[in-house]
Design brief:
Layout lengths: L4 E5 L2 H13 L4 E5 L13 E5 L7 H17 L4 E5 L12 H12 L4 E4 L7 E4 L2 E4 L2 E2 L18 H6 L5 E5 L1 H6 L1 H13 L2 E6 L4 H11 L4 E4 L7 H7 L18 E6 L4 H11 L4 E3 L2 H5 L4 H10 L7 E4 L4 H11 L1 H23 L1 E7 L1 H11 L3 E9 L2 E7 L6 E5 L8 H8 L2
The chain binds adenosine-5'-diphosphate and the ligand O=C(O)[C@@H](O)C(=O)COP(=O)(O)O.
Length: 424
């Protein structure tokens, strides 16, 4: 049977977040890393998530990768598609959410979709088109200082409107409260009035379940992982998805453990502080890296002296004022790439040379760099560690590795310890 849903995710942690919600709904899901080649076997699953590292690429590149992923998913037999981006709508006025969604709509010959980054379980809600994180508007949170995609406007109608030529409308809270038919009617009205997109309000999981039922037959849905929570049940009602127990079963992996972090998000900084209370940690200084010091070698020496006795953390993460100063000296993209490269090199050496088989990575871009360096081609999705983050087991590596890819913003303060305790 062909998969029901084909997904294109704009970063690797985002992809596991989406896969986690599909698995929790009972859909057998595999995550593939990068655009699959023509010879890649189509896994026997209900959903495939193609994880790209396209969130912060130039828009034209992100479009090209996303369309290639869509084409592969179409060839694999998928008939419905989902474009997954960040629940904090990480993007700039140049893209990449608008340009990629436009290109996917064009490729599918579709003229309308929704945009809904809501993920209430992690505090992301949308009300009257405005995105909240917890009790604050997005633009009042630390996201306004994000190293790559600072978010300074919470009005998603405006934010997406600056990224696309198509008209952007809104399906409001009260329409969703009125139920499935009201949502469909509002979507039909907007479509008739030549709107290409509707931002979809959603303040809780019930609304996302209602929206999932209402919109499950769109060719393309766009949003965060929350928009997927209503889809498995909608597919079951349509007879597309059979009851599937054990969608999250993966093998257990033994071996040494490490954590690497390149995320500078508030949640990660809190998790590092919590970890440092009881475990060893090494801080990478990007300015020393830039000066040519052997920071990678020092980090590895630090880890090698300790990893046989217990897990170690290597991190580049720093608070906003430090990141700002570093970016002013090195350039935003240059600093990001350099740090990602160093963290990935360290993770690869720990796996290849030191027997690390249980690895936690913090940060979306950072995860992309690490997963690419390790040669991972896919991930089996296991049970959830914290909302938005499942344990996974790698495909394509010489030996399977238990991997948790943590979005910067996700996870409780004790996430690193918990992940190493509960992941397969
Ligand atoms: N100290 C630092 N100074 C500047 N940039 C940094 C520093 N530490 C990490 N970075 C970069 O910041 C970016 C964080 O993005 P990401 O890994 O996606 O984290 P998040 O999931 O929190 O957004 C990466 O490109 C990373 O290399
Ligand atoms: O939707 C989300 O918030 C996450 O799935 C996600 O995409 C996070 O991205 P990073 O913060 O860059 O890890």
């Amino acid at each position: 049977m062909a998969p029901i849903l084909g997904c294109v995710a704009d970063d690797f942690t985002g992809a596991t977040d989406l896969a986690n919600n599909l698995v929790r709904g009972g859909m057998r899901t595999v995550q593939l890393i990068g655009v699959p080649g023509p010879d890649t076997d189509v896994p026997d699953v209900d959903a495939i998530v193609v994880a790209l590292k396209s969130r912060t690429n130039p828009a034209a590149e992100a479009v090209q990768m996303s369309v290639a992923a869509l084409d592969w998913l179409k060839t694999a037999g998928c008939q419905r598609f989902l474009f997954k981006y960040c629940s904090t709508f990480d993007s700039t006025d140049e893209g990449n959410i608008g340009p990629v969604a436009d290109a996917l709509l064009d490729r599918l010959g579709a003229d309308f979709t929704i945009a809904c980054p809501a993920f209430p379980e992690t505090g992301r809600t949308i009300f009257k088109g405005h995105l909240f994180v917890g009790d604050q508007l997005l633009s009042d949170t630390h996201m306004r200082h994000h190293p790559l995609t600072p978010m300074t406007d919470s009005n998603l109608v405006q934010v997406l409107g600056r990224q696309t030529e198509r008209k952007v409308g809104l399906i409001q809270h009260q329409d969703i409260q009125r139920g499935v038919e009201a949502i469909r009617a509002k979507a039909a009205d907007l479509r008739r009035d030549d709107y290409g997109y509707a931002i979809l309000d959603s303040v809780d999981d019930d609304q996302l379940h209602t929206a999932g039922e209402a919109l499950a037959d769109l060719d393309l849905i766009t949003g965060g992982s929350g928009i997927a929570i209503g889809l498995p049940e909608a597919y079951r009602k349509r007879g597309l998805l059979k009851a599937s127990a054990g969608a999250n079963e993966v093998p257990a992996i033994a071996g040494k453990a490490a954590v690497v972090a390149g995320s500078c998000s508030a949640a990660t900084l809190g998790q590092i502080a919590e970890w440092e209370k009881a475990h060893p940690a090494f801080n990478i200084d990007p300015l020393m890296l830039a000066d040519g010091a052997d920071v990678v070698g020092e980090a590895l020496a630090f880890a090698r002296a300790r990893v046989a006795d217990g897990p170690v953390l290597i991190y580049a993460s720093a608070p906003p004022e430090t990141v700002k100063a570093i970016q002013e000296r090195l350039g935003r993209a240059e600093a990001g790439e350099m740090v990602e490269g160093a963290v990935a090199q360290i993770a690869k050496a720990l796996v290849d040379e030191d027997g690390v088989r249980r690895l936690v990575v913090a940060g979306g871009e950072t995860s992309g760099a690490v997963v690419s360096a390790l040669g991972v081609t896919g991930l089996h999705i296991g049970a959830q560690i914290d909302p938005g983050v499942p344990g996974t087991v790698t495909l394509g590596t010489a030996e399977p590795i238990a991997l948790a890819l943590k979005s910067g913003n996700f996870g409780a303060p004790d996430f690193f310890e918990k992940a190493l305790r509960v992941m397969p």
